[in-house]
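Data card: per-record layout.
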Amino acid sequence: MTDEDFIGYLADLLDPAERAAVEAYLAAHPAAAARVGRLRLALAPLEADREPDPAPVGLAVRTIERLAAQLVEHEHAAREAAAGRADPSADTAPDFVPLRPARRPAPPTDPEPRFVGGRFRAELFVAAGIALVAVGLVLSGVNRVRYQQRVVACQNNLQVLYRGLSGYSETHDRRFPQVGVEGRPTAGTFVAELAAAGQLPPGFDTTCPGDPRVSYAYTLGYRAPGGELVGLRSEADADLVPISADYPSREACPGSGPASPHQRVMNVLFVGGHVRPTTTALVGPGGDDIYRNQLGRVAAGLDRTDAVLGRAGDRP
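The structure for this 316-residue chain is written out next.
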């Protein structure tokens, strides 16, 4: 769990499943619970400015009804005022009695009926439209914030993975964990190798925060000229070679396997340590498809520049 998760928990920006996951994590990790307590104190000034309760149910409808009453009342008052101005007796001194009472002209009639009484006027439709648009904008903004928070949380997870991968390579002749070999047959076993080497923080969640069912894709390596399987190394000229990512989107890699929890966006971790969000799979060296090799297969690359990332159960 990261501070972004805890802040989302304290600000009530998480959905029920995410909130339950954070609460379970805090119950099992006292140090994290203490961290959340400190964050709560730091956010206290912001909490003081929040509205105490959400908008009541039916507020928009009651607002429109109030607007309708105001419109009708205003129109009635305006017509009374107009009738008073049209009455000659209104401008006459109070002690003057005319010889004949002045006739009050009939109130002007509207050239077009304006739907008063129990029927809606055109203004009410405008007010209703404004209320609906405002509600839509608020909900859309909340959804964008939550979506961006999940994408950033996934990027942070990949950065933690990179620190583990980098530490592993420093003690293994600059090599990253290689899959497709005895003991590590599939792409997902790289996480177990990092944990066994003590390169992951205690309690680190190896799934994407956007969807706990999704782990991370990992390099399947490539074939040397003699056909043997080779894993990646932490070499300077390999900075642009991807080593891990959240799962590909359906558009990037159609299939029956799990897909990116971020819809069209995928977070990709490169050997150089930077994380790049992308909407296309063509981000390998020279525009290489990072989820298939040059033969269009989910298998080890045909050479060192043919980068291929596999889902947890994929084999080279």
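Known properties of this structure: Residues 64 and 126 are 10 Å apart (CA to CA). The mean pLDDT is 74.

See the next section for split statistics.
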